User: What shape does this take?
Amino acid sequence: MSGPETADQVLLTAAVAVIVIAGAGLLARIWRGPSMLDRAISLDVCAALIIAGLGAKSAFARDPFYFPIMLVLAFLGFTGSVGIARFIAARDRPAPRREAAGAGGEGREGREGTGGTEGEAP
Assistant: This one.
């Protein structure tokens, strides 16, 4: 084994060790996470760690077989994150305030058409 091949093996082994340590921390965050958002982010990071692990396996084997699988997992992780973010944003949205009628008109938030057209001041 030549010098560059040995360096590749050492670096790949270190990368796998970091992925395993990150996975252990990830499981702790999923288990302890004080909020649902912490757990959702941890599951997103789990998808990234799986992709990183597949990339390390592909580099060890010097085989591009796992690249399409990694691409599909990245797409699924992204769409899952967006879905969770939209769900949490809709759940955490504050209820609209009701203002008393006749209290000197509506505020800026209550007026329709505040976007303006050309020539109008907002």
Summary: The chain is about 65% helix and 0% strand.
